[in-house]
Write a structure and sequence with these properties.
The complex is a heterodimer of chains A (about 850) and B (about 400). Chain A is of the alpha/beta class and about 850 residues long. Chain A has an eight-stranded mixed sheet, with helices on both faces. Chain A is elongated. The two termini of chain A are about 55 Å apart. Chain B contains 16 helices and 14 strands. In chain B, the strands form two sheets. Chain B has a seven-stranded parallel sheet with strand order 4-3-2-5-6-7-8, with helices on one face. Chain B has a six-stranded parallel sheet with strand order 11-10-9-12-13-14. In chain B, helix 2 crosses helix 5 and helix 2 packs across helix 16. Chain B is elongated. Classes of the chains: A alpha/beta (about 850), B alpha/beta (about 400). At the A-B interface, helix 2, helix 3, helix 12, strand 3 and helix 15 of A face strand 1 and helix 1 of B. Strand 3 of chain A pairs antiparallel with strand 1 of chain B.
Chain lengths: ~850, ~400
């Protein structure tokens, strides 16, 4: 989309789309929706036409008055002299030849509306195959009959006839030039639209019908319906006194108005989108075809600029009274928008970027609508506050406030953009290293099992739910069979409820519990995190093992792990995302026409308005994640993150091989359990269409979704173990499976066996499953109090020179914490947490949880 | 994953708001101080030209001559730009006047459009209408009329964008005021100073003192162009005049030699043998004027010059004068020049040509005509002999006003 389109046309296209969607949602009929769009566009542009008509009339009057003089000048003077004399004549009459364009203004107004409608309707999928009366398909030319092989489209002809009639009514008594202009336009539209989809032509025909009615009303001299302008003038009369100075002083009024427009542009088009991108730069990077998130950022910015440009254009079209009301409303609107954005920010939880800006927890329209009283109160307070300020004559102060606001928002935007750029540059460097990212068409083994030596395998499942394990084993006997030799520890605690708190302890042991990390106050947090990830690899390397680490969680504090922290002897790389293209091909789930950036281009603007709009309307605007787009939700690629991690697990056997020689240490992290998605029952397989989800015995939908990915993950790990058996490397392999934390389901998780419904518990209950060398028994359960910090000990147990892990504190219980999950929300040296507890023994007993200060 | 965190956002926002509030007010204070500083310095500088004259052609030297001499006499520095390479200003050495040739047409205009001066005096009409634009650096544009007839005989809008107009007689101001009102223009300063070039010509005639008895002499002095006397009538007029046997001086307009070469050549050839027909191509017309007893012309204002300088009658074939290209077309009365025609001279029509000798005799002896001429002269040409110092006075006054801001 080029810049001019985004600025001048896009706002109108958006409006057309909204009207179409709203009416379709109500009546589910494309014909009615087209009529609604036509009606809305005609009504909305009516005030513009009335003003345009007034201008045109003024121009006609001027031309009439000037005619004798101009004729005389043309008769008497020639060449340059004529031009210069004419120029002076115009100048003395305060007229500029460019003003003559006013006579074509109503034609020009039609142009952006036409382009917007053309772009939107000619590509609208929804019209395809829809019939309306004699039209078989609104998505194609009507082709009602043919004459000698020539397809005749009736609708464009009907449209042209109506257009000509409307023009004939309009130009009665006008100069020949104007007549020619209009009939010429009618002919042009016939040519332009003759082969267009019937839906588009139907829309334009309705517009012409409306125009005909309007012209008849004009000629019959009905009372002009200057609805909008009259309405705004009424607002003016109502609150007249405080607005008088604004009305009288053109410069003051336009000063405030233009500053408000700039503030609007910066808030909606720059600050809000850039803040969102800033909160997770990596997720907005490499959204094709853009590399930098700034490629995406330009869209909400330019689109908002378009809206601002239209606001300024409308301002100048209207009378001073209307301009005054505009200014008042805009200023109050900006104040309200700031309050909505920053005071009523609301907690909407995690935003899923990959699915086109959707809230993970969803948003219920009803719940949001219930907040209506808040909005009423805010509106009253803001409107009366602004009016009070105006009545006190604080216009200079208002202007200063606007200036400060603009400067602040500008600084905020620049700050964000610079931050985005610098974080992107860092990310770019990470991505440039092929061990971190890069798609492969062929699978090369990375997990090398030793047939002769010992193998140690530590698997982390991000957000894996421990309480699901017995249910999965019960439901899938084959999976259970694959887990022979394992001991399952249900009474396992994670020291934090998100990866940033827990993963260091998982890979580094007790020295890396959150409170131990914070005790080393002078060392950089990032260094301590990286150090924890290297504890086991370094140890095993020293013992002569081959070491492989894949997708090390948050390595170098980057969501896409930055493997440069590992030494060259350690084979560290990222598997997630490397084979998703290949997997899609093999499983018939190729992306068909889905381009995430297409959603971003549009939905980002809606997200921005979501932030500034009154709280009660946010649910409606969110539209269950559809953002009122005509492209149906199902078209969105909801599986992209799921496939990224699913494929990494599914290909585990292909990614493995068996060699002789030294033993092998392998650390594997996978996020499939972090990206809830439906799988096909009973095997919990990911496929394009999920026809059977199985029976939900676990809790709400959200719980069930998590169950699905947990079952899929355990099943695929089981397949890997089966492969190990077939290749004779199961017995000499020690395996630890753990999750870094669980998930808080707000008490909805029915698989959790506990005597208290402390919501935090579920988030701190981690998976821990352990299989030692040579173990072959059926999977067992052991309710010993365990923590994921025990893993380092379990992994190194009995191997020569095991590192000393300080596990003495465990007897008195360990401290668990909760706090923000994003890197940016923590200090440079220490982790920030909001609550902490000391927990010991049976973690499912409320009595064993002691809240600490 | 992405976590919306409004907390940090709003905190940062409020910190930034207060920082900017502080910064903004501090900045405004600095801006005001800087403005004062610069404004103070501006007054101290000044390498502007206080007085500037622009002469667009040699023929206007007589208009500027008394002014230039007055500045020289008073010892006031004056810059004199001219588009005439042979401008008589270069014939003398000046102490206080700095004459400079600045080229013709657009070359000169480009220079003038960027000039910086307090007062600029010129005879060129159509300022800011044709190529010559008002320079932002020139504070006051002053036009001095170089004709004794109506001030509306300039091309349309001729005087509209001058700050002041220096008139030969008060009466010229009425039409200017009328047009200002009609066109919604701010009123100009109108100062009656007299007519500098008539002062010069009058003085020269005094010096010549024509000898007493001489043959009766008719001076034919037409304008150029399609409405000019020669192109309209040619032989029809000259034939009967030649037959009278009087001395006939034919003095075509200097421009005729350029654009009507063929016509002039044809007429010269035809009257080659008529000894009483004398052709005069001298750029200076004063010798012919001094010899003539009557003038025949068209709508040119030279008739008034002749009448006022020599106190003798004239015949004018005004024909179908089309006022539309001129400001005259916009005032609700005919040119004063034509109104007084019947009182101080006589309109000549084509049907009068056969008896032209008789007509000339009658008008030459008419005492009423002489009386009217005196009246008209008093009205049209005020402050006779004083134009030079009056213009200088006015320029000095305006320059002081400009300098004082």
């Amino acid at each position: 989309m080029n810049i001019l389109y985004l600025i001048f046309i896009y706002p109108i296209e958006l409006l057309i789309e909204l009207v179409f969607q709203l009416s379709y949602w109500r009546w589910e009929n494309c014909g009615i929706s087209l009529a609604a769009v036509s009606l809305a566009v005609s009504f909305l542009s009516l005030p513009l036409y009335i003003i345009a008509e007034r201008w045109q009339q003024r121009e006609r009057d001027i031309q009439k008055a000037f005619k004798p003089e101009i004729d005389e000048i043309k008769a008497v003077f020639k060449g340059d002299e004529r031009y210069m004399i004419l120029s002076t004549f115009y100048r003395q009459n305060h007229y500029h030849p460019i003003m003559a364009l006013r006579s074509s203004i109503s034609l020009m107004i039609q142009v952006p509306f036409f382009i917007a409608a053309y772009v939107y309707l000619s590509n609208l999928e929804m019209l395809k195959g829809q019939s309306l009366w004699f039209i078989k398909d609104l998505g194609a030319p009507d082709q009602l009959f043919s004459i000698g092989g020539f397809q005749v489209n009736v609708l464009p002809i009907a449209m042209t006839i109506i257009n000509i009639v409307a023009s004939a009514v309009y130009v009665k008594g006008f100069a020949f030039k104007e007549k020619l202009q209009l009939y010429g336009m009618a002919a042009l539209f016939l040519v332009l639209l003759y082969n267009s989809p019937a839906g588009l032509v139907f829309y334009w025909t309705l517009n012409n019908v409306f125009s005909l009615c309007k012209n008849i009303c004009y000629k019959v001299k009905f009372k002009k319906s200057e609805t909008l302008e009259k309405g705004l003038e009424k607002v003016y009369c109502f609150c007249k006194r405080p607005l008088v100075p604004l009305y009288q002083e053109n410069r003051l009024r336009f000063g405030i108005f233009s500053l408000c427009c700039v503030a609007f542009l910066l808030l909606v088009g720059a600050v809000i989108p850039s803040s969102l991108i800033c909160s997770s730069v990596q997720e907005f990077s490499y959204i094709e075809p853009y590399e930098s998130p700034l490629g995406i950022f330009q869209f909400p910015f330019l689109q908002t600029m378009g809206i601002a440009v239209w606001m300024v254009a409308l301002y100048f079209l209207f009378s001073r009274k209307t301009q005054t009301v505009f200014t008042f409303l805009l200023f109050a609107g900006i104040v309200g928008a700031l309050i909505n954005t920053y005071v009523f920010a609301g907690g909407y939880g995690t935003v899923l970027v990959q699915n086109g800006l959707i809230f993970e927890n969803g948003l219920k329209i009803k719940n949001e609508l219930a907040k209506f009283p808040i909005d009423v109160a805010t509106t009253i307070v803001v409107a009366s506050g602004v009016l009070f300020g105006f009545s006190k004559g604080w216009f200079k102060q208002v202007k200063n406030v606007c200036t400060i606001l603009v400067l602040t928002l500008l600084a905020f935007s620049i700050f964000n953009v610079v931050k985005i750029n610098s974080e992107f540059q860092r990310f770019k460097a990470i991505v440039a290293d092929s061990s971190n990212k890069g798609a492969d068409d062929t699978i090369n083994p990375v997990y090398h099992f030793s047939r002769t030596g010992k193998n140690v395998l530590v698997i982390m499942l991000d957000r894996g739910i421990s309480s699901f394990v017995p249910y999965i084993m019960k439901e899938l006997p084959q999976v259970k069979e694959n887990y022979r030799g394992f001991v399952y520890y249900p009474n396992t605690l994670a020291p934090g409820d998100s990866t940033i708190f827990s993963s260091p302890a998982l890979f580094g042991g007790y020295d890396y519990l959150p409170q131990r990390i914070n005790e080393r106050k002078k060392e950089l947090l990032i260094h301590k995190h990286n150090e924890a990830l290297q504890v086991l690899p370094t140890y095993f390397l020293r013992q002569g093992y081959r070491v492989t680490v894949t997708d090390a969680p948050m390595a170098n504090y980057s969501w896409t792990p930055d493997n440069s922290i590992f030494s060259k002897e350690i084979h560290a790389l990222n598997i997630a995302g490397r084979y998703d293209k290949l997997w899609r091909q093999e499983h018939g789930m190729e992306l068909s026409g889905f381009v995430l950036s297409d959603f971003m281009k549009r939905d980002f603007l809606f997200f921005d308005f979501f932030r500034v709009c009154p709280v009660s309307l946010r649910g409606v605007l969110y539209d269950h994640g559809g953002w009122w787009s005509s492209i149906k939700e199902k078209a969105k690629d909801e599986n992209s993150l799921t496939i990224k991690y699913y494929s990494a697990l599914d290909y585990l056997p292909e990614l493995s091989d068996v060699t002789d020689g030294a033993g092998s240490y392998m650390a594997v992290d996978n996020d499939l359990t972090h990206e809830p998605a439906w799988m096909q029952y009973p095997e919990y397989v990911l496929q394009a269409e999920i026809t059977d989800k199985g029976q939900n015995r676990f809790g709400g939908d959200k719980v069930f979704l998590h169950y699905h990915v947990n079952a899929a993950a355990l099943r695929m790990l089981g397949q890997w173990f089966s492969w190990m058996r077939q290749n004779g490397v199961y017995d000499n392999t020690r395996i630890v499976i753990a999750s870094d934390h669980g998930r808080d389901f707000m008490g909805e998780n029915r698989t959790l066996d506990t005597d208290f419904d402390k919501k935090e518990l579920a988030a701190w209950n981690a998976i821990l499953m352990y299989k030692d060398f040579g173990a072959e028994h059926e999977i067992q359960e052991d309710s010993t109090f365990m923590t994921i910090a025990d893993i380092a000990f379990l992994a190194t147990k009995g191997i020569s020179e095991p590192p000393a892990f300080d596990m003495a504190g465990k007897k008195n219980g360990i401290t668990v914490v909760t706090g923000p999950g994003e890197i940016g929300d923590h200090g440079k040296y220490t982790l920030n947490y909001t609550e902490k507890y000391r927990v010991k023994d049976n973690i499912f007993k409320a009595a064993n949880w002691e809240k600490l200060k | 994953m992405l976590y919306i965190d409004p907390g940090t956002g709003s905190m940062l926002f409020s910190v930034l708001i207060s920082l900017f509030a502080l910064g903004y007010f501090a900045f405004r204070g600095v801006v005001i101080k800087l403005r004062l500083l610069f404004a103070g310095k501006k007054g101290g500088k000044g390498k502007r030209i206080p007085y500037l004259i622009y002469n667009e052609g040699r023929q206007y030297w007589n208009t500027f001559k008394p002014v230039v001499e007055e500045f020289e006499r008073r010892g006031i520095p004056l810059v004199y730009y001219t588009s005439a390479q042979d401008d008589p200003v270069f014939d003398q050495t000046w102490q206080h006047v700095k004459p400079e040739y600045i080229g013709e047409g657009n070359k000169a205009y480009a220079r003038l459009n960027l000039m910086e001066a307090d007062v600029c005096l010129m005879t060129t009409p159509g300022l800011d209408v044709f190529q010559l634009k008002r320079s932002k650096g020139i504070k006051h544009y002053c036009h001095v009329v170089h004709m004794i007839n109506d001030a509306t005989t300039y091309k349309r809008y001729g005087l509209d964008y001058f700050d002041s107009v220096l008139l030969a007689g008060d009466w010229q101001g009425d039409d200017i005021r009328y047009l200002e009102k009609l066109r919604g223009l701010p009123p100009k300063r109108l100062i009656t100073v007299g007519c500098p070039y008539l002062d010069v010509q009058g003085a020269r005639l005094e010096e010549m003192k024509p000898a007493g008895e001489h043959p009766f002499t008719v001076l034919v002095s037409p304008s150029w162009g399609t409405s000019g006397l020669l192109s309209l009538y040619g032989e029809k007029l000259l034939d009967p005049l030649a037959e009278t046997g009087w001395n006939i001086i034919v003095r075509p307009h200097p421009q005729s030699k350029v654009v009507e070469k063929d016509l002039i050549a044809r007429l010269q050839a035809k009257y080659n043998k008529n000894n009483n027909i004398i052709w005069d191509f001298d750029p200076d017309n004063i010798v012919s004027i001094s010899k003539a007893d009557i003038m025949i012309s068209d709508f040119s204002s030279i008739t008034l010059d002749f009448a006022f300088l020599r106190d003798k009658p004239f015949l004018a074939a005004v024909g179908d004068f089309d006022p539309r290209p001129y400001d005259a077309g916009k005032v609700p009365h005919p040119l004063w020049q034509f109104q007084v025609l019947s009182q101080i001279g006589k309109e000549l029509k084509e049907e009068d040509f056969p008896r032209i000798g008789e007509i000339i005799k009658n008008i030459a002896d008419d005492p009423a005509s002489a009386e009217n001429r005196a009246l008209a002269k008093a009205k049209a040409w005020q402050h006779q002999g004083q134009a030079g110092f009056r213009i200088a006075d006015y320029m000095v006054q305006v320059q002081q006003e400009v300098a004082e801001g």
